[in-house]
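Fig. S4 source data, part A: sequence.
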Amino acid sequence: MCLGAMIHARISKVVFGAYDEKTGVCGSCQDLSNGDCFNHTIEVEGGILADECKDLLQQFFKQRRYKPQIKTIFKK
């Protein structure tokens, strides 16, 4: 879905750090960015500071999982 939005927006280049090994389509489990089925191609450069980016993502989701949920009660 993100790749489709980038193609329609005619983005010429995307640079990212961490590959998405489960659902990524720019060189991870698939590589649709180089496909000839689209009317626009995007230059993709991935893996920039990959270890640092992976650590940041893991830390973010770990904090998100263990953050206490705030419960509110709405009265009518």
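Fig. S4 source data, part B ends here. The mean pLDDT is 83.
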